[in-house]
Design a protein that fits this description.
489 residues, 2 domains, globular, 14 helices, alpha/beta, Nitrilase/N-carbamoyl-D-aminoacid amidohydrolase
Length: 489
């Protein structure tokens, strides 16, 4: 009886320590941004895993770590779907639990632990529902010294370095001086490599204006007058100090219940482009059939002509479409979309002409900025600037908005491009290729952000290589660590 009670107390103690370690990781994320805590969290996790032997305990060690990490850092999801918030938190915590199972005890765990987290991060970018990359390890370093290494091999590489930094601390804790010195020097070397890695080069300049119409944060589309949102952006645009080459509007602030070309708003957008004598990129949301909507950004020329259009490819599950609708509809909340949004299938680029010169604008609408492949495809398609029209006005607090800015910073560093983020109620931001936020709006304010930005060409190593090298390297490291651990046991 006493032995059983002691075992239960021991299990609770381990789970509590793991939970606290995960909470440290959560608070390294935006909006809190205490990035050194990410390294501390993996120091604690590594030390716990070094002492826990049974498979069940190792799984619950990782699972508890995931609970502490993911539930606070994705708390904004309760405004979208409470069941979804709980399910994703439990599912992705289980991912961490399985990762802990794959990490052997002993010294070889220091090879396996970074590999395990790269593998689960890669999985989260792709599954379920096409991927749900929320509160990723890379986000914790978006404004930290280590962040610029993302241009070497992308966010999975940066995720690995976060874990490696924790391992350096753990090996110092264990007084493994040689290993700590070698690993620490290697980490510094990779950090230095990020400064000299290819980052693209400027090929011209473009003057831009980002329009944020303002309004109350935390409002749902079903409770909002679409025309009022549209007029806020019309009014804010009327105050633009011209001349500018390009005016960027947020995602779906032109919301109509028929095809856009059949609506009065279409003509008003054409008139606005003529009045501004500049290119206007407007985020539109239109009904294209009884069962489908479309979410797109349209490029209007200074003459008011519709020249190009990009329809959003990567859609938000439960926000823009309902997976398993036939099952979900029996207990779905009223605010879930009545019609699914139709995914686009075009390249993430808008091609316009400024002063007789073709300009290729890469674009990632809203949710797509969280996915490195959407930005990489835009740059591979010739994107010289990366646009991110978005709409986070439905979500309370600023967790999601802050993490989106962090994602935009990572995409800027990965691609070597300026990123222009436009949101109706904030945050709108102008971000340079080094990931620095040049200017950012506040929540709910009406504001126009101005800048002269470089159009850039050329690839970084990250945009050339993609995620496959890190996935293959991590899989090999995981297998090798387990084989070597068994041989040495």
């Amino acid at each position: 009886m006493v032995t059983s009670r002691n075992k239960m107390n021991e299990k609770l103690t381990v789970s509590f320590k793991s939970l606290i370690s995960g909470i440290c990781l959560a608070f390294s994320m935006p909006p809190w941004g205490w990035w050194p805590l990410a390294f501390v969290s993996f120091l604690f996790l590594d030390q716990i895993l070094s002492e826990v032997a049974p498979y069940r305990k190792r799984f619950f060690t990782g699972f508890s770590f995931g609970i502490g990490w993911l539930f606070p850092s994705t708390f904004w999801m309760i405004a979208l779907t409470v069941p979804g918030y709980i399910i994703q938190g439990m599912l992705f915590s289980a991912f961490v639990g399985f990762a802990a199972l794959l990490v052997p005890r002993g010294a070889w765990r220091w090879l396996a632990l970074p590999a395990a987290f790269v593998i689960i991060e890669a999985l989260r970018y792709r599954w379920p529902f096409g991927g749900v990359p929320l509160a990723t390890l890379a986000m914790s370093q978006s404004r930290a010294p280590l962040g610029h290494t993302v241009r070497i091999l992308g966010p999975l590489f940066l995720s690995a370095l976060v874990v490696v930094a924790g391992i350096v601390l753990s090996s110092l804790w264990e007084r493994k001086w040689k290993f700590a010195t070698f690993t620490g020097i290697s980490l510094v070397g990779l950090w230095a490599l990020g400064f000299v890695a290819p980052n693209g080069s400027p090929i011209g300049k473009t003057t831009i204006a980002i329009v944020q119409g303002g309004g109350e944060q935390g409002t749902r589309a079903i409770d909002t007058d679409e025309r009022e949102v549209f007029e806020r952006h019309l009014n804010a645009s009327s105050n633009i100090v011209t001349p500018v080459d390009l005016v960027l509007w947020p995602e779906d602030v032109v919301n109509v219940q028929q095809p856009l070309s059949d609506s009065p708003e279409y003509e008003e957008l054409q008139i606005l482009a003529r009045q501004l004598d500049s290119w206007l990129i407007a985020g539109i949301f239109e009904r294209v059939s009884i069962t489908e909507n479309a979410n797109a950004s349209i490029a209007f020329s200074p003459d008011g002509d519709e020249v190009d259009r990009y329809d959003k490819v990567r859609l938000v599950p439960f926000g823009e479409y309902v997976p398993l609708r036939g099952f979900i509809k029996h207990f779905a909340p009223s605010y879930l979309p009545a019609r699914d949004t139709r995914p686009g299938n075009g390249e993430p680029n808008l091609v316009i002409e400024i002063d007789g010169e073709k300009v290729n604008l890469g674009i990632a609408i809203s949710w797509e900025i969280f996915f490195e492949d959407r930005a990489r495809n835009a740059i591979s398609g010739g994107g010289e600037i990366l646009l991110n029209p978005t709409n986070g006005s439905s979500y309370w607090l600023t967790i999601l908005q802050s993490q989106q800015v962090a994602s935009s910073r990572l995409r800027a560093m990965e691609t070597g491009r300026w990123v222009l983020q436009a949101a109706p109620t904030g945050f709108s931001a102008i971000i340079d290729p080094n990931g620095d936020v040049v200017e950012r709006s506040s929540i709910s304010e009406t504001r126009v952000l101005y800048a002269t930005v470089d159009r850039r060409s050329g690839n970084t190593l990250a945009t050339q290589a993609g995620p496959l090298p890190m996935i293959l390297l991590s899989t090999s490291a995981m297998v090798g660590a387990n084989v070597l651990a068994r041989r040495s046991s």
